[in-house]
Specification:
By secondary structure, this protein is α/β, with parallel strands linked by helices. It has six helices and nine strands; from the N terminus they run αββαβαβαβαβαβββ.
């Protein structure tokens, strides 16, 4: 079944959850600003409730939605690596986002290079985007693999064929130092 962008946006805005491609892997995605949808993703994915997920944004200005204030070093780093397959852990102190940061008071954000996804996010708002697999299992590289994992627990699947890439590189910036937490598709030196 092919789903139109209009229907996709409608489903996501109604607290829907689905499997979508990013520039790296398929993700189990929902609106990051919908607590109800986020809790659904955690349940479907059987994700550790203490682990935050990566949030995809359509532009750097989206960080303001989460009360994130960038320091000069962070701005320079993001300008160099975004858009792209680099997820950056940033401070998010606001209690109202505890359903996202799970008590860590940090969130990982990525501005994807994949233009189709960027356009979708600009219409829906930021998307929570853990990889499409139950906790501890390998990420689904195809929609048929994702369907084996999730079946009809999700509202839609968007198929773009096999995605055989590494996950995003995950970094944390503290005191103007970059710490690589997970080396992924984009190489970054510490």
């Amino acid at each position: 079944m092919k789903i139109s962008d209009k229907n996709l946006i409608k489903i996501l805005k109604a607290d829907g959850v689905g499997v979508l491609p990013s520039e790296t892997l398929y993700g189990l995605m929902c609106l990051a600003l919908s607590k109800k949808a986020v809790e659904r993703v955690y349940k479907i994915r059987k994700r550790n409730p203490e682990k935050p997920c990566i949030i995809l944004i359509s532009e750097i200005a989206d960080l303001k939605l989460f009360g994130v204030k960038l320091k000069d070093f962070e701005k320079k780093f993001l300008k160099k690596y975004w858009p792209g397959a680099v997820s950056v852990v940033l401070d998010c102190q606001k209690a109202k986002f505890s359903y996202l940061h799970r008590g860590t008071k940090t969130l990982a954000f990525r501005l994807p290079k994949y233009e189709t996804l960027q356009k979708l996010i600009s219409k829906t708002g930021p998307l929570l985007a853990p990889s499409a697999n139950p906790e501890g299992l390998v990420p689904a590289l195809t929609i048929s693999e994702a369907k084996k994992y999730f079946g009809d627990e999700v509202d839609f699947y968007v198929n773009v064929g096999k995605l055989n890439k590494k996950p995003s590189t995950l970094v944390k910036i503290k005191d103007d130092e970059v710490e690589v937490l997970r080396q992924g598709s984009t190489k970054i030196k510490q």
